[in-house]
Amino acid sequence: MPLKSAPFGTFDATRLVENAPLSAFTTWRVGGAARWLLHARADELPFVFDACHRRGIPVYKLGAGSNLLVSDSGLPGLVVCFRRTLQKIWFHEDQITAEAGALMPRLARTAARNGCAGFEFLAGIPGTVGGGVALNCGTEASEQRELKLVLKAVDVVDDRGREQRIDDIRHLGMSYRTTRIAEYGLTVLRAMFRPDIRGDPGLISLRMAHHLDERRRKQPIRAKTAGSTFKRVPGGLPAGWYIEQCNLKGLAIGGARISPKHANWIENCGSATSADIEALIETVQGKVEARFGIVLEPEIHWLGNRPPKFRVAEPGTAPGLC
């Protein structure tokens, strides 16, 4: 098999892509090109991260691309993509272990088949396990859930290539839609989960189907979106309520619009750019602040240049891997 070399190593040519268009790797289908994109194996990551650290090459992590907005100008360094190469999930002695690139709906189905309850809400979340852990993903549906409730431990690697297992997840600082994983310079390799309770696989599958039906009914899941755009307002209501009260459903800038079906979702109608989506986010923030005096905090994360006017309630480092 042909090989291809880069400053951080030599790999199969099918796994290392130069000037890779990132719009093909995100659910919004927008964004510029990455200097390099690597479909990495777990055993390669310590060396790759250390080599990039020593050479000053920026590293970005990408899972399903379902919670990310990539700059139109692209990314100057290496994008490590997990979805194709780190997909394994296995069940052993009441514990489910999943690699970072495994999709969360597949984790939910694995849990259901093995009679493990508490994972049903993941059936409607399109991201990967690594991104879900890094963001403490969850649902705002009738039964609010978040990933930390079933997380037992994680294996991580830091930006110098050093691996470790974190058995006490309190060290991850997991709270509503955030953790301290990126702040610590860590990348999730795999995660270990414990079920809430054991139950009948058939009944668990029925509850999982209910979550999916509710999602299909309320959200534009067939459109090109990144899921929820803004976080729930602390002590307040879901962000979509404020956006809808400002009569912004259907508002469009360029090829991006506020979904007519759910006000907290932004759709790419076919020709959107990242700049269109950024402008729409900024417009929504301004309208909601003018009426309610609050600044909606984005739930999505940026890779690349953030627009200068863009405001977040609590600036932080994007963990990537979504």
Structure, described:
The chain is an alpha+beta fold. It folds into three domains: 3-81, Uridine Diphospho-n-acetylenolpyruvylglucosamine Reductase, domain 2, CATH 3.30.43.10; 89-218, Uridine Diphospho-n-acetylenolpyruvylglucosamine Reductase, domain 3, CATH 3.30.465; 220-314, UDP-N-acetylenolpyruvoylglucosamine reductase, C-terminal domain (Uridine Diphospho-n-acetylenolpyruvylglucosamine Reductase, domain 1). The chain contains six helices and 18 strands. The strands form six sheets. Strands 8-9-14-12-13 form a five-stranded antiparallel sheet. The protein has a four-stranded mixed sheet with strand order 3-4-7-5. The chain is globular, with a radius of gyration of 19 Å. 44% of the residues are buried. Mean pLDDT is 91; it is low at 313-322.
At a glance:
The protein has 322 residues and is α+β, with helices and mostly antiparallel strands. Helix content is 22%, strand content 25%.
Low-confidence stretches: 313-322
Rg computed from alpha carbons, rounded to a whole number of angstroms: 19 Å
Shape: globular
CATH architecture of the largest domain: 2-Layer Sandwich
* Class by alpha and beta content: alpha+beta
- What order do the strands of the largest sheet run in, or round the barrel if closed? 8-9-14-12-13
What is the tally of helical segments? Answer: 6
How many domains? The number is 3
The third-level CATH topology of the largest domain is Uridine Diphospho-n-acetylenolpyruvylglucosamine Reductase, domain 3
Report the helical percentage: 10-25%
- The top-level CATH class of the largest domain is Alpha Beta
How many beta strands in the DSSP annotation?
Answer: 18
- Kindly report how far apart the N and C termini lie: 30 Å
The biggest sheet, with number of strands, parallel, antiparallel or mixed sense and barrel status, is: 5 strands, antiparallel
Mean pLDDT: 91
